């Protein structure tokens, strides 16, 4: 898939921009603070319904603007053209597809974007929530029932947590309906996550071997969020009293986690900050390759501030790796990375929120 056109209004420092993008590489050049990253942020918003910048929700709308709006024409590999829109006034978001109002979940299913940016190292160095989010985005795009199942699980979890905090008893009749729903939905979520990670692992090993051959063989460890081999329903019943004392549910799919280890770096603490970035990049590109394998078309790949995040050798490896694919790639930087100088690319100059095509 690819963006044929991307329009932004009222997003951060960009009052209005309309971009006709190349199906291959697109490079956005400009000084720091000019608005380059906001273009990638717009693509990510259409794909995830949120920004990749932490604490960005209240800062998304341009100062003084009544709201923000994003429009995109997505061309799929089967030649279907789908028009997407995402707008916000105040705290309320509205999604549209081909001029019809739709749920945000339907919008983001239509648009797949993976993004490597300065905060991506948190996928490796951060908490389990970051890795769950990465995993569940991938599962969401290949398992059509995932979102509805996850919402059922979250509703049951919320109800159980409310009972734990407000009820003076752990009476089975109160808890059992919600625990049964958590167990049913949690078992499906766990099955889908395991299947996805099993498919992802060969791509992770290929990408890690490309970027970090010195670390040796890669292994992946997954924990479902409760004791391996135990039935979640029985465990929830056993843990009611303990969970009541803590005021929340301590076992379940919401506590799942996964991690990577290498022959030469068995714990993540053995990785340098630069290696954390490269492992995160390997994860994101592995996810893009698996998405292409399953869905039959590549997601859009965004690389923010590539030259600042990677040394020249790894920049060249990334560009060479993507050059051999049909992926549309959006790259930002203050100067053109050397790795892009020999690659056909559409170039945009970004200055004070204005985007001007150069090539």
From TrEMBL:
InterPro entries: DNA-binding_RecF, DNA-binding_RecF_CS, P-loop_NTPase, RecF/RecN/SMC_N, RecF_2. It is found in: Cytoplasm. Pfam families: SMC_N (PF02463). The keyword DNA repair applies. Residues 4-336 form the RecF/RecN/SMC N-terminal domain. Transmembrane segments: none annotated. PROSITE patterns: RECF_1, RECF_2. Coiled coil: none annotated. Keywords: ATP-binding, Cytoplasm, DNA damage, DNA repair, DNA replication, DNA-binding, Nucleotide-binding, SOS response. Belongs to the RecF family. The RecF protein is involved in DNA metabolism; it is required for DNA replication and normal SOS inducibility. RecF binds preferentially to single-stranded, linear DNA. It also seems to bind ATP. PANTHER family: DNA REPLICATION AND REPAIR PROTEIN RECF. NCBIfam families: recf (TIGR00611). This is DNA replication and repair protein RecF.
């Amino acid at each position: 898939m690819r963006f044929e056109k991307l329009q932004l209004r009222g997003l951060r420092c960009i009052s209005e921009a309309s971009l006709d993008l190349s199906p291959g590489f697109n490079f956005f050049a400009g000084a720091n603070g000019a608005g380059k990253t906001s273009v990638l942020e717009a693509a990510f918003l259409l794909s995830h319904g949120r920004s990749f910048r932490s604490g960005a929700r209240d800062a998304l709308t341009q100062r003084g603007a009544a709201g923000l709006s994003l429009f995109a024409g997505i061309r799929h590999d089967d030649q279907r053209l789908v028009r997407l829109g995402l707008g916000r006034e105040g705290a309320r978001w509205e999604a549209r597809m081909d001029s019809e109002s739709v749920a945000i979940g339907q919008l983001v299913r239509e648009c797949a974007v993976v993004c490597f940016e300065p905060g991506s190292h948190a996928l490796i160095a951060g908490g389990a929530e970051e890795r769950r989010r990465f995993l569940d985005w991938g599962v969401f795009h290949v398992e059509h029932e995932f979102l509805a199942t996850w919402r059922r699980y979250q509703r049951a979890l919320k109800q159980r947590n409310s009972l734990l905090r407000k009820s003076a008893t752990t009476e089975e009749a109160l808890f059992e309906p919600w625990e049964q729903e958590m167990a049913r939905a949690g078992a499906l979520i766990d099955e889908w996550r395991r299947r996805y990670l099993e498919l992802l692992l060969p791509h992770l090993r290929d990408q890690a071997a490309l970027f970090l051959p010195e670390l040796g063989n890669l292994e992946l460890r997954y924990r479902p969020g409760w004791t391996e081999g135990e039935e979640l329903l029985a465990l929830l019943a056993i843990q009611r009293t303990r969970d009541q004392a803590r005021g929340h549910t301590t076992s379940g799919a919401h506590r799942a986690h996964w991690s990577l280890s290498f022959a030469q770096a068995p714990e993540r603490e053995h990785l340098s900050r630069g290696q954390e970035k490269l492992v995160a990049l390997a994860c994101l590109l592995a996810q893009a390759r698996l998405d292409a394998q399953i869905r039959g078309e590549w997601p859009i790949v965004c690389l923010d501030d590539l030259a600042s995040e990677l040394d020249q050798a790894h920049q060249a490896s990334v560009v060479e790796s993507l050059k051999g694919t049909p992926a549309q790639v959006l790259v930002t930087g203050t100067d053109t990375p050397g790795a892009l100088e020999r690659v056909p690319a559409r170039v945009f100059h970004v200055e004070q929120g204005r985007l001007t095509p150069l090539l």
